[in-house]
């Protein structure tokens, strides 16, 4: 099975909010609303938890085996890490979320070898993760220079 085109399009569209916050802050910082960072971090955490759910979905059919059970536990741990980040101040939350996205990619690398794959999925996840980490690094650089 190959990855359907709409999945790729929706994945790339999901990067737009990651870049909107840093772009707005870079281009027009005086117009940024007070709530922007909270909403932006919430989106980051939401997507991290969603990606942990996709790992859960891959692991579920194999949950009676050791690899499937490991996949469920990894997915749950990563979802809880994303949720935990929402209780932290901005800079630590950003660091925890960046770590979560890296761990999600590592978990998907493991999943590819242990639970099977859909053609093109890992390549898409890799590109999207690079995009997410780039946006997070951009946002961190803005806060570090302020």
What would a concise description of this structure say?
With 146 residues, the chain is mainly α.
Q: What would you call the structural class?
A: mainly alpha
The backbone outline, from C-alpha atoms, is globular
Q: Name the average pLDDT.
A: 94
Number of helices: 6
Beta content = under 5%
Question: Could you estimate the helical fraction of the residues in percent?
Answer: over 70%
Low-confidence stretches: none
Number of domains: 1
Major β-sheet, in short? none
Order of helices and strands: HHHHHH
CA-CA gap between termini: 48 Å
Give the SSE map.
Elements: H1 5-13, H2 16-27, H3 36-59, H4 66-85, H5 90-114, H6 121-145
Helix pairs in contact: 2-6, 3-4, 3-5, 4-5, 5-6
Structure notes:
- 79% of the residues lie in helices and 0% in strands.
- It contains six helices and no strands.
- It has 146 residues and is mainly alpha-helical.
- The protein has one domain (36-145).
Main traits of this protein?
mainly alpha, single chain, 79% helix, 146 residues
């Amino acid at each position: 099975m190959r990855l359907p085109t709409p999945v790729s399009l929706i994945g790339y569209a999901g990067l737009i909010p990651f870049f909107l916050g840093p772009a707005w802050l870079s281009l027009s910082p005086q117009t940024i609303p007070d709530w922007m960072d909270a909403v932006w971090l919430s989106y980051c955490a939401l997507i991290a938890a969603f990606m942990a759910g996709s790992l859960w979905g891959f692991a579920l059919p194999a949950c009676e085996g050791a690899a499937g059970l490991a996949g469920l536990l990894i997915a749950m741990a990563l979802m809880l890490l994303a949720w935990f980040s929402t209780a932290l101040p901005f800079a630590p939350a950003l660091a925890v979320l960046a770590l979560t996205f890296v761990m999600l990619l590592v978990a998907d690398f493991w999943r590819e070898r242990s639970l099977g794959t859909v053609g093109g999925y890992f390549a898409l996840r890799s590109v999207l993760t690079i995009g997410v980490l780039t946006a997070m690094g951009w946002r961190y650089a803005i806060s570090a220079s302020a």
